[in-house]
Amino acid sequence: MRIVPSNHIQVSVPDNCQLHELDIWSSCYAAIEAGTKPFDVRLNDRNFQAGDALLLREFDPETGAHSGRIALRWASHVLQGGAFGVEEGWCVLGLAEHPPLPAGISDTRLW
Fold first, then answer.
1. Which residue of 23, 36, 59, 82 has the fewest C-beta atoms within 10 A of its own C-beta?
2. What averages of pLDDT result for each successive group of 10 residues across the chain (111 residues)?
3. Residue in 54, 48, 58, 51 with CA at minimum distance from that of residue 86
């Protein structure tokens, strides 16, 4: 694990994962926080990978300002564009509340 400083907090992420800081509109942020939106559709300009840490920063597009609220999620799956109606160059990120388990660990009682 390593500590990664961001603009707002320090985030602890596994050594083999990338941290992405992403702006997310207020309505989408609220749904992610409530647990009713376990995915996000994004331009895949960052080569997102399963296991990446996603620091979501609430953003109001009308005012152009951040609220200061943040949420840490993990990319549980990346559906690449070019299939299933997702435009090429875009992706659908599955969002998880916990980081992926290390290789070889399947029983979380041991973790």
1. 36
2. 58 80 95 96 96 94 92 95 96 92 72 56
3. 48
Specify which residues 102 forms β-bridges with. Answer: none
C-alpha torsion angle, residues 85, 28, 10, 1 (rounded to 10): -40
- CA dist list (Å): 74 to 62, 95, 97: 27, 6, 6
CB 16 within 8 Å of CB 53:
no
Q: What are phi and psi of 99, to 5 degrees?
A: -65, 160
| Distance, CA of 111 to CA of 105 (rounded, Å) | 8
Cβ count near 98 (within 10 Å): 10
User: Which tokens go with 97?
Assistant: 């509340």
Find, among 90, 111, 85, the residue nearest to 99 by Cα.
Answer: 111
CA–CA separation, 96 vs 61, rounded Å?
A: 25
99: nearest Cα among 18, 5, 22, 7 = 18
Model pTM?
Answer: 0.82
